[in-house]
Amino acid sequence: RRLEVIAARHRLVICAGMGSFASRTQSRLGALAINIYDGAYLGMSYIERAQNEFLRFAVTRRGAAGQSFDVTARKRLQAVVDDLDIATDKAMSDKARALSRAVRTRVAGVTEATDLATLADIEADLAKTVPRYGTDGLEARDRAEAFADEARYALWRAILVALGLAALVGVALDQAVIPSLKRGVGIARSIANGKLDNRISTTGRSEAAQLLRALAAMQAAIEIGRAH
After folding, report:
1. For residues 187 and 193, what is the distance between their CA atoms, to the nearest angstrom?
2. 9-17: which pairs have CB atoms within 8 A and are 24 or more residues apart?
3. What digits encode the pLDDT tens for the residues 109-136?
4. Measured between alpha carbons, how far is 64 from 56 in angstroms, rounded to an integer?
5. What predicted TM-score, i.e. pTM, was given to this entire model?
6. Percent helix, strand and coil across the chain, each to the nearest 5
7. In terms of C-beta density within 10 A (0-12 exposed, 13-18 middle, 19 or more buried), how is residue 166 classed?
8. Rg (Cα) of the chain, in Å, rounded?
């Protein structure tokens, strides 16, 4: 029974270790997936939307240079600022964050007096910022793929280690159980053949020791019976 408990504990430890590894891997992959969606996808969506909105705003201003902003122009300009705020918050790198923050400051400073050259400069800044977000997204995807490959290899290594430990425990159990069982069988065979002077060691508390004590008691009982 003690050996069964040892084997059961071994299996429990292996299962717990594999479960812990799988849980950590799943959590990490989940975090990477959320990071790619929340940072790369949403960040890219907002920065592109800000670029498109500003391009439409600039086209309108080129046809109305020097005139006051109408309601549509003001809403469009504010939408660009809002989108840039979100894109800055979703940025996955310091470089992307710095670029979007700088262009956001320039957009927020646009007024009716802003000349067309300044608008063109802001368009150029946005054109440099958008690819940075795309590059960050690709790098995040590459990191996720690399981690997935690493996790797959680590899982196989863990399985091999678990199998190795199971084999070692099996060998250890065999070494602890088989010799005692063979000795018990040999003693039982000797007693069955009438040999009652077998030297039987009865020390220990294992099942094998209990078996040997039982054989010793049986041998002693047979000797007493023959004496009478």
Report:
1. 10
2. 10/165, 10/166, 10/169, 11/166, 14/162, 14/165, 14/166, 17/158, 17/162
3. 998 888 889 999 999 999 999 999 888 8
4. 13
5. 0.59
6. 85, 0, 15
7. middle
8. 39
